[in-house]
Amino acid sequence: MTGPALPMDLLIVEDDRDFRETAAQWMTRKGHHVEQAENAQEALNHCARKHFDVAIVDMNLPGLSGLELLQQIRDENIDTEVIILTGEATVENAVQAMKLGACDYLTKPFPLAEVEQRCRMAWERGRLQKENRQLRALLERNRPATRIVGESAGMKELFRLIERVGPTDKAILIQGESGTGKELVARAIQQCSHRADRPFVTVNCAALPEQLVESELFGHEKGSFTGATATKPGLFEVADGGTLFVDEIGELPGALQPKLLRVLEDGSLRRVGSHRERRVNVRIIAATNRDMEEEIAVGRFREDLYYRINVMSLVLPPLRERRDDIPLLIEHFLEAGWQIEPDARQALLTYDWPGNVRQLINAIERATIMADDKLITLDDLPHEVVRAGSSGTHAPLASPVQEDICKLEDIESAHILQVLKQEKGNKARAARALGIHRRKLYRLIERYNIQWNGD
Ligand SMILES: Nc1ncnc2c1ncn2[C@@H]1O[C@H](COP(=O)(O)OP(=O)(O)OP(=O)(O)O)[C@@H](O)[C@H]1O
User: Fold this and answer.
1) Are residues 299 and 351 in the same domain?
2) Where are the alpha helices (DSSP H) in 59-111?
3) CATH of the domain at 62
4) What's the confidence (pLDDT) of residue 33?
5) Same structural domain for residues 253 and 340?
6) Does one domain contain both 69 and 157?
7) Cis bond leading into 258, ω under 30°?
8) Which of 70, 80, 226, 314 has the smallest number of Cβ neighbours within 10 A?
9) Residues bearing 4-aspartylphosphate (predicted)?
């Protein structure tokens, strides 16, 4: 994945047709994508349409000069590296060009191989700057890798699949209930891929307000909407060369689905408020806890996009279907020196964990705060877990769910209502107990039209 092996997108801006065409042919033969412009206006038109890695700009153009074009490129925040060409070497010209943000300066005549080499250096410099920005963004976003705990048959099969799909570079869809470890698996896939040392960027479509998803994913230009006070690259650009984990893809607004489809098809995208095409090289790993076929059937998700992201799919089993892993997870998350009383342990092993591993971690954390003397008792566990332990039933849902209800949605909505009641309508606490984001709880309440009137 090193830069120099890849072709560059180049723009040659030169009014001397012979020179321009010879240079373009040379660069094309070397495998680069080249566009030509004979004046500054034509160059700006090209830049408005497409992103270029490097522009080679003659200083003496008819109309706007090369330096004026350079100024315009910087004013419009076009992130293309510019190399200035001139017929005569004067220190003043060079200094002026560099001051305006040119990254290099060449005096004619020169061998074309030299221009290619300078373009590579310019591109590499641009890439390093971009990588710096990416690393800064990653420092804010990346958490240290966590080991995936599990020895059940389902988890062993999952580990096998991760190793198999990791190196393929194909788009992957991870399906599983909330809290089953989809993000953890996405990171493990990235670690098994040739992008392991490249950025891993995550975005959660459910955690962002709908109006922000587009600019977060695709970036925006300064002034493209109220509040866009500066140009900002989107997460696709931040993840360039690496992996973008799109969590809760089922929540991606319909209007953005064609845009995502385009990136998946040919790696091209446009920032909000820009006509300029840019190309990115990003592997997408998506995750969902929804039944995507149902989403397609009701028209909430595009079928063509589904097939694009679902080139390979992994299904994470819920914790209640791999109970053998519960003791291992408890051991993993409970700090050394802590003990659990047998009936409390029994409750932890018996409960159904609708919020899966995340909910189990929360319960353990909560218990260690409540407990005395490093000993967890039944009293330190959440009510619903205790009830499961004492009744010996696996389902905390037994009370609100009628026997004739069999649709998963009904069970989910009944369980949410029960937890809301238990938390006296406090949605933040209810979301925590359910092991889901608060925003997601709001969406579910709206979707199922759940009414809790404080009784
Ligand atoms: N098998 C596992 N081993 C260790 N930790 C796990 C495991 N599964 C999940 N976790 C932990 O549980 C928490 C939730 O996992 P994660 O965020 O990957 O779930 P998710 O399926 O992506 O959830 P959501 O759909 O709500 O986004 C994280 O802290 C993660 O580290």
Assistant:
1) no
2) 66-75, 91-99
3) 3.40.50.2300
4) 93
5) no
6) no
7) no
8) 226
9) 58
Long-range CB contacts (within 8 A, 24+) of 25-28: 26/112, 26/116, 27/112, 27/115, 27/116, 27/119
DSSP of 289-349: SS-HHHHHHTTSS-HHHHHHHTSEEEEPPPGGG-TTHHHHHHHHHSPTT-EE-HHHHHHHH
- 41 CA distance to ligand 1 centroid (A)? 52
Which residues, other chains included, contact 400 with Cβ-Cβ below 8 Å and sequence gap of 6+?
414, 415, 417, 418
Task: Count Cα atoms within 13 angstroms, Cβ side, for 23.
Answer: 30
Q: Which residue is closest in CA terms to ligand 1's atom 8? A: 181
227 vs 162: which has the higher pLDDT? 162
Residue 157 φ then ψ, to 5°: -65, -40
- Give which of 306, 374, 313, 386 is closest to 345, Cα–Cα: 386
53-to-127, 189, 233, 397, 406 alpha-carbon distances in Å = 9, 30, 15, 57, 56
Tokens of 152: 């059940």
Q: How far is CA 260 from the centre of its chain?
A: 12
In a shared domain, residues 9 and 53 = yes
Ligand 1 mean position to 180 CA, how many Å? 5
Residue range 108-118: average pLDDT?
Answer: 87
User: Which residue carries 């991870």 as its tokens?
Assistant: 174
CA angle 81, 87, 88 (to 5 degrees): 105
What token pair was written down for 120? 């590579």
pTM: 0.66
Total number of domains in the chain: 3
Using the structure block, give the residue that is written with the tokens 């929540």. Answer: 251
CA of 344 to the centre of ligand 1 (A): 23
The pLDDT of residue 413 is: 83
User: Is 437 a residue whose pLDDT tops 60?
Assistant: yes
Residue ranges making up the domain that contains 398: 320-447
How far apart CA 426 and CA 71 sit, in angstroms, is: 55
* Distance (Å, whole) CA 37 – CA 69: 12
247 lines ligand 1 (CB under 6 A): yes
Q: Is 328 in the pocket of ligand 1 (CB under 6 A)?
A: no
Kindly list the distances between the CA atom of residue 178 and the CA atoms of 76, 182, 186, in Å, as whole numbers in the listed order.
Answer: 43, 8, 14
In this structure, the residue with its CA closest to atom 12 of ligand 1 is: 358
Q: Say if 138 falls within a structural domain.
A: no
For residue 181, give the ligand 1 atom closest to its CA.
18
Distance CA 18, CA 53 (A): 23
Q: Is 361 in the pocket of ligand 1 (CB under 6 A)?
A: yes
Residue 395 has a pLDDT of 42
